[in-house]
Amino acid sequence: MRVLIVDDNVELAENVAELLADEGHQVFVASSGPSAIALMMNDPVCMDAALLDVRMDGMDGVELLAELKTRCPKMLFVMMTAFSRDDRLAQARELGAVDILAKPFAPNVLFEALQAA
């Protein structure tokens, strides 16, 4: 599975990427919405799934989800957040996010969320 991870917490993104790579996934990491879009523009094949941080400076994860959904409507979207009460979570679900992971999350929770892809 090709998975895009977008989080401004580079250490967390790298840890998640390592977990997924160890499971045999092809992983791409971006630290912001604009860098994720640039990465997607350079790759003509849509990712299978995207893990998006809800709160990021500039373009947040919900805005990024909306943008990526227009480019790759079949992509599975999973949101990540450290804020359990975030008004953006309802918007993410409305746009098609299949799961919301509360940071920090256990590896098995991550793998279960991606099984929907």
Could you please describe the fold and organization of this structure?
This protein is α/β, with parallel strands linked by helices and 117 residues long. It has helices at residues 10-22, 33-41, 61-71, 88-95, 107-114, and strands at 2-6, 26-30, 49-53, 76-81, 97-102. The chain has a five-stranded parallel beta sheet, sandwiched between helices. β4 (76-81), α4 and β5 form a beta-alpha-beta unit. The N and C termini lie close together (8 Å). The mean pLDDT is 94.
Name the features:
alpha/beta; single chain; Rossmann fold; 5 strands; 117 residues
List the helices and strands and how they pair.
Layout: E1 2-6, H1 10-22, E2 26-30, H2 33-41, E3 49-53, H3 61-71, E4 76-81, H4 88-95, E5 97-102, H5 107-114
Parallel strand pairs: 1-2, 1-3, 3-4, 4-5
The end-to-end distance, rounded to whole angstroms, is 8 Å
Kindly report the spatial arrangement of strands forming the biggest sheet.
2-1-3-4-5
Sheet with the most strands? 5 strands, parallel
Radius of gyration: 13 Å
Total individual domains: 1
Number of helices: 5
Structural class: alpha/beta
Q: What is the CATH architecture term?
A: 3-Layer(aba) Sandwich
- Please mark out the parts with pLDDT under 50 across 5 or more consecutive residues, or reply none: none
Order of helices and strands: EHEHEHEHEH
Mean pLDDT metric: 94
Total beta strands? 5
**What's the level 1 CATH class?**
Alpha Beta
CATH domain fold name: Rossmann fold
Task: Summarize the amount of helix as a percent range.
Answer: 40-55%
Shape: globular
